[in-house]
């Protein structure tokens, strides 16, 4: 995630790097210290230490992915941090690799994080100031620890961290199961890797994705899958899932540098945590110390200026590690570098291919503009007659229909290394509706949260809705921007599902996450509606079974999408209008 060196102060809206080149440093590694937890389990921890007099502040990484591999994979970042006078501590999570105990995703990380931070702070080589850094699951572990408010945790840098609720993104998104979690489960094993191809995670079709019910995936994959089985015994957002949340924002006291990319598989974590901490954090310093960086990147941050064949220009890469060091210098060393007085939000706007520095997220002055669906009743495929405009339906337009068959679902091979993929192949099927605007004559900036308000009915008692926003280029390519999903039974509550009345028009409102794009002249805006995104997400079998994760009774469903006065399906786009 190093990127290209940047100046001390931002160019345009880029985050400001620390002045000077990385300092040469001699490092040594102290292996396999044992960290006692409150229940007697011991966790393993390595130290990457600069050869200099201590004690020093410590930056902690808590990972389920092997501390030894993490030290190798993040060596450049660790060297950069250690060169500025920090010790980097890398900790195997409970039940992983050299740590004792049993691994169960999420549920032990709160207390284990607290205990590890406070144990580090008490060691003679630590000066009492502890920060945390890491990405994905190692971003979550920071929030889990922070939710317990360890006294010596001064700041965190969660990168591509999932949000607090385990039903907001992964493993479940608005009731729909992220099927890729099964591949994660298979590869992780009980304690160490049991699939040598884990590095190629989420890049190819797996036979066991086809298993029905999805609770039988471990058997088809030839693994035990104990924690997978336990998760899928809980088909609603009950106490089991809530144990894995970390949203005690009103008690938290840590400044946080939240980093993500527009196509990050865990995108909503960074902006939702930024918003919540700015509003609710326990201290003024914590509220003022929140930062948000959103780049033109997928889950693998800041690796290339080109993603999925689109080149976002030289400014797409930043010296992120230098910005991280500035952040730690302020909060772990009390250095008066004024970072807390700089703009807290940095977003890269694609199309314009430039960074914007902003005062808040959502961006001040955001105008929520509805874009309505229209058609003559044949919006099926990208060659259909569906249109999109800011004018609501004025007449009784004919509804659009398609048949969703769980045994013949729309298939989109998902790869978390990709971003603005061309969505045309996914929308050539009759079970996908497309609503496309007229060709734009002026640029339109859309930056922020996107919402879908779909008025629809189904012949089934339960089904899924998947909606995607794309940027149609002059060459016809339909570049993916963001998406939303909803399992229909959860339209009112994740805790208390309500089945559909077949054939009855119902309003479904759900998030499509966010985008940051300038739709350029000559481009068109498109919204795609369907009922499956297999194999990124599991298939709803439409039967209305009490536990859909244990359902093996597939039934086709006829889906009807309405766009007429009083029943006007639309998406709400966050439009930014500024005078040049």
The number of helical runs is 11
Strand order of the largest sheet: 1-2-4-3-5-6-9-10-13-14
Beta-strand segment tally: 27
**How far is it from the N-terminal to the C-terminal residue, by CA?**
32 Å
Task: Give the structural class.
Answer: alpha+beta
Mean pLDDT value:
95
* Main beta sheet strand tally, sense and closure: 10 strands, mixed
Strand residue percentage:
25-35%
Task: State the share of residues found in helices, binned by percent.
Answer: 10-25%
Radius of gyration based on Cα positions: 24 Å
Report low-confidence residues grouped into runs of 5 or more: 2-11
Gross morphology is globular
Question: In brief, what are we looking at here?
Answer:
The chain is of the alpha+beta class. The chain has 11 helices and 27 strands.
Task: Give the secondary structure arrangement, pairings included.
Layout: E1 27-36, E2 42-50, E3 56-63, H1 67-73, H2 75-83, E4 87-92, H3 109-121, E5 126-135, H4 137-147, E6 153-159, E7 172-173, E8 176-177, H5 180-188, H6 217-221, H7 226-231, H8 239-242, E9 256-263, H9 269-280, H10 284-288, E10 290-298, E11 306-307, E12 310-311, H11 320-332, E13 345-349, E14 354-358, E15 367-374, E16 387-389, E17 400-404, E18 433-436, E19 444-458, E20 464-472, E21 478-487, E22 506-519, E23 524-530, E24 557-561, E25 563-564, E26 567-568, E27 570-576
Parallel strand pairs: 3-4, 3-5, 5-6, 6-9, 9-10, 10-13
Antiparallel strand pairs: 1-2, 2-4, 7-8, 11-12, 13-14, 15-16, 15-27, 17-24, 18-23, 19-22, 19-24, 19-27, 20-21, 20-23, 25-26
Helix pairs in contact: 3-4
């Amino acid at each position: 995630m190093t990127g290209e060196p940047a100046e001390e102060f931002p160019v345009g809206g880029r985050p400001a790097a620390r002045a000077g080149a990385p300092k040469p440093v001699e490092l040594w590694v102290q292996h396999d210290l044992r960290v006692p937890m409150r229940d007697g389990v011991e966790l393993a921890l390595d130290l990457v230490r600069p050869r200099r007099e201590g004690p020093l502040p410590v930056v902690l990484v808590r990972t389920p992915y092997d501390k030894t591999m993490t030290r190798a994979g993040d060596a450049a970042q660790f060297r950069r941090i250690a060169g500025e006078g920090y010790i980097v501590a890398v900790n195997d999570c409970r039940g992983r690799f050299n740590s004792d105990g049993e691994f169960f995703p999420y549920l032990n990380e709160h207390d284990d994080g607290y205990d590890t931070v406070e144990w580090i702070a008490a060691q003679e080589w630590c000066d009492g100031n502890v920060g945390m850094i890491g990405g994905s699951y190692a971003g979550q572990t920071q929030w889990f620890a922070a939710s317990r408010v360890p006294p010596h945790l001064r700041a965190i840098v969660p990168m591509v961290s999932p949000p607090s609720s385990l039903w907001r993104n992964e493993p479940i998104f608005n009731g729909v199961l992220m099927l890729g979690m099964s591949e994660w489960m298979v590869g992780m094993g009980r304690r160490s890797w049991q699939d040598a191809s884990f590095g190629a995670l989420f890049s190819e079709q797996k036979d066991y994705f086809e298993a029905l019910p999805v609770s039988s995936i471990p058997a088809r994959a030839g693994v035990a899958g104990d924690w997978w089985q336990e998760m899928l015994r809980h088909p609603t957002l009950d106490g089991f899932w809530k144990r894995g949340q970390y949203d005690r924002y009103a008690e938290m006291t840590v400044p946080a540098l939240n980093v993500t990319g527009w196509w990050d598989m865990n995108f909503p974590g960074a902006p939702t945590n930024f918003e919540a901490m700015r509003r609710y954090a326990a201290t003024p310093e914590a509220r003022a110390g929140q930062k948000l960086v959103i780049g033109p990147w997928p889950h693998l941050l800041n690796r290339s200026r080109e993603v999925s064949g689109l080149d976002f220009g030289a400014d797409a890469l930043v010296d992120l590690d230098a910005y991280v060091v500035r952040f730690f210098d302020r909060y772990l060393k009390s250095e008066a570098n004024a970072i807390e007085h700089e703009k807290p939000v940095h977003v890269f706007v694609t199309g314009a291919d430039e960074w914007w520095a902003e005062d808040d997220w959502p961006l001040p002055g955001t105008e929520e503009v509805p874009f309505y669906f229209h058609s003559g009743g044949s919006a099926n495929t990208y060659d259909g007659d569906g249109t999109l405009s800011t004018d609501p339906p004025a007449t009784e337009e004919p509804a659009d229909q398609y048949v969703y068959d769980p045994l013949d679902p729309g298939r989109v091979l998902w790869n978390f290394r990709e971003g603005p993929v061309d969505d045309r192949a996914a929308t050539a099927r009759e079970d996908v509706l497309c609503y496309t605007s007229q060709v734009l004559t002026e640029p339109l900036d859309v930056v922020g949260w996107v919402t879908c308000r779909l008025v629809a009915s189904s012949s089934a008692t339960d089904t899924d809705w998947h909606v995607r926003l794309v940027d149609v280029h002059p060459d016809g390519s339909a570049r993916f921007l963001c998406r939303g999903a909803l399992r229909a039974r959860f339209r009112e509550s994740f805790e208390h599902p309500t089945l559909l009345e077949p054939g009855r028009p119902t309003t479904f409102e759900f998030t499509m996450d966010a985008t940051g794009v300038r739709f350029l002249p000559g481009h068109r805006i498109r919204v795609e509606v369907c009922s499956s995104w297999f194999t990124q997400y599991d298939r709803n079998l439409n039967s209305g079974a009490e536990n859909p994760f244990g359902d093996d009774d597939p039934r086709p469903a006829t889906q009807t999408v309405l766009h007429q006065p009083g029943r006007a399906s639309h998406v709400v786009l966050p439009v930014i209008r500024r005078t040049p």
